[in-house]
């Protein structure tokens, strides 16, 4: 009699996940990725980013058939017309999405079946800095708060451990909490 083992947990193929991790341990050069976005101003505060190709595992990835388009703008109180979430809100989304994905992956690896992962994020900002009316406040968030509600087939302490481990593995959490150098190049004409 043969036994079929289900290797999917929380929507993640854990056999593929562990095989990928093993391959990257054996060939660290495969871990070099480059993600890209292009952006075009459309008028006023409205602009659109396009995301499709990226470099991964030693070559250009061509698996995406369609590009993602993400519109951004500002609310009326910040002189926009609500053509999309504003960039600060996208940062909160990126942080929530990366932490959530990390929680799901860590839980899958630790044999925890999740039933729900929900989060609320807040970003506190004094916009005087970004608007150039005062040098006192910084231009960006002064503080970000993240609140998770996680449930699954594990005791509370195990679920908390999954979230803590996910914080340590989340790329966007790392970028937000540790900063990252940003080089800006300008071409005119």
In percent terms, what proportion of residues is strand? 25-35%
Distance between the termini: 72 Å
Compute the average pLDDT: 92
As laid out across the biggest beta sheet, the strand order is: 3-6-7
- Number of helical segments with 4 or more residues: 5
Overview of the structural elements:
Helices cover 33% and strands 26% of the residues. The protein has 5 helices and 10 strands, in the order E-E-H-E-E-E-E-E-E-H-E-H-E-H-H. The protein has helices at 14-26, 87-109, 128-131, 156-169, 171-178; strands at 8-9, 12-13, 34-35, 38-43, 46-51, 54-56, 59-61, 68-72, 114-124, 143-152. The strands form 4 sheets. The protein has a 3-stranded antiparallel beta sheet with strand order 3-6-7, with no helix packed on it. A hairpin with a 2-residue loop joins strand 1 (8-9) and strand 2 (12-13).
Short description:
Helices cover 33% and strands 26% of the residues. The chain is α+β, with helices and mostly antiparallel strands and 189 residues long.
What is the strand and helix layout of this fold?
Blueprint: E1 8-9, E2 12-13, H1 14-26, E3 34-35, E4 38-43, E5 46-51, E6 54-56, E7 59-61, E8 68-72, H2 87-109, E9 114-124, H3 128-131, E10 143-152, H4 156-169, H5 171-178
Antiparallel strand pairs: 1-2, 3-6, 4-5, 5-8, 6-7, 9-10
């Amino acid at each position: 009699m043969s036994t079929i083992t289900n290797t999917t947990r929380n929507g993640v193929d854990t056999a593929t996940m562990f095989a990928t991790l093993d391959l990257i341990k054996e060939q660290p050069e495969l871990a070099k990725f480059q993600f890209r976005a292009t952006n075009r101003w459309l008028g006023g505060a409205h602009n659109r980013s396009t995301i499709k190709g990226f470099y991964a595992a030693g070559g250009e990835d061509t698996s995406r058939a369609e590009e993602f388009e993400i519109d951004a703008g500002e609310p009326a109180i910040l002189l926009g017309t609500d053509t999309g979430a504003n960039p600060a809100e996208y940062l909160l989304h990126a942080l929530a999405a990366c932490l959530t994905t990390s929680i799901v992956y860590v839980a899958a690896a630790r044999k925890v079946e999740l039933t729900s992962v929900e989060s609320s994020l807040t970003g506190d900002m004094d916009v005087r800095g970004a608007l150039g009316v005062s040098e006192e406040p910084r231009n960006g968030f002064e503080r970000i708060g993240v609140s998770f509600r996680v449930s699954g087939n594990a005791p509370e302490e195990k679920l908390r451990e999954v979230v803590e481990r996910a914080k340590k593995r989340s790329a966007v959490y790392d970028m937000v909490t540790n900063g990252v150098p940003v080089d800006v190049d300008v071409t005119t004409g």
